[in-house]
Design goal:
This protein is an all-alpha fold. It contains 13 helices and no strands.
């Protein structure tokens, strides 16, 4: 039943996932609510919820606009499930903001294969990535995806290789202006984040470890069939698929490298993994297998979410 509800993009799908995200978010917030919190704190949390909702619906837009799925809402549902799987992601404002800007960049990079206004798309993608870097330094890793996309589509024009430096200069100017206006040393804040840590013993409870293990199982289950499925795709979809795989690997690398680790850092990998999960469901010929797979994932996610509260 669940798979049949989301097998087409319908308004009711947006209502269901939006309501579920809001419910999960407030359950997490109330669990950590302190009566001494200021009104400003509450507005900040509402702002983060708004960004999460935008990210959720933007994922659906990217997927359908670039034909990454067969006109269904599975990607949106998987993305929501991964967010719920890691409640710590709901309270990590820097990761939420950085991931939102990375999603904006991915939209431009995936659509680069149309070869319409490639320079504008490269600049936009780089600009959003550098903005994301302000919130979380290691999101700079997605610049690799920019250069791979240039290599795939527009490597013949040397000017395209220089565009990231122009975007970096533009963001640097904006950052300097913000420093002068708000009298805050944003550059030092970014530099302080440029540290590497391989300490993975940050878990607060056993269920956070189980959630990571479950995500790893899904990654293995979804990744290798997705790689195999690209052989039967058109050249355009092959390029898009390779970008999805690379963006997933970059997301995992960011988690490995980041200092001050928490499960929320996995958020960079949620979108590409959701796309691969969608492909996995679409390749299941029997409807009951789709239902079983999707219901199993959702039930485990909800159970782990409740146990981590």
């Amino acid at each position: 039943m669940l798979a049949s509800v989301f097998n087409k993009t319908r308004p009711i799908n947006h209502v269901i996932v939006g309501f579920t995200l809001v419910l999960a978010y407030f359950l997490h917030i109330f669990q950590n609510f302190d009566s001494e919190n200021s009104i400003g704190f509450l507005f900040q949390k509402l702002g983060l919820l708004f960004v999460l909702l935008l990210s959720l619906f933007w994922v659906n837009f990217i997927t359908n606009k670039n034909s990454l799925s067969e006109n269904n809402a599975y990607t949106m549902l998987f993305f929501l499930s991964f967010i719920i799987l890691f409640p710590t992601a709901l309270g990590n404002s820097n990761i939420i903001m950085a991931n939102f800007f990375i999603l904006l960049a991915l939209r431009r990079l995936i659509s680069l294969q149309s070869l319409i206004d490639p320079k504008q798309k490269i600049f936009d993608a780089c600009f959003w990535i550098f903005i994301a870097t302000i919130f979380h330094f290691w999101s700079i890793g997605f610049i690799l995806l920019v250069y791979v996309s240039i290599l795939f589509h527009v490597s013949g024009d040397y000017k395209n290789w220089l565009i990231p430096f122009i975007a970096l200069f533009g963001v640097g100017i904006l950052l300097t202006m913000a420093t002068l206006v708000f009298n805050q040393d944003y550059l030092s804040h970014i530099i302080d984040q440029a540290t590497i840590s391989f300490n993975f013993l940050y878990f607060d409870n056993l269920f956070q470890r189980i959630a990571v293990f479950f995500l790893g199982l899904l990654a293995v289950l979804f990744l290798f069939p997705y790689i195999g499925s690209l052989n039967n795709k058109s050249l355009k979809k092959k390029f898009a698929g390779r970008k999805i795989i690379l963006s997933f690997l970059i997301g995992v690398a960011i988690y490995v490298l980041s200092d001050n680790k928490n499960n929320g850092v996995f958020m960079y990998s949620f979108f590409p993994l959701a796309v691969m999960g969608t492909s996995y469901l679409e390749n299941q010929k029997k409807d009951w297998l789709k239902e079983l797979a999707l219901i199993t994932v959702v039930l485990i996610v909800i159970t782990l979410f409740v146990l981590q509260l």
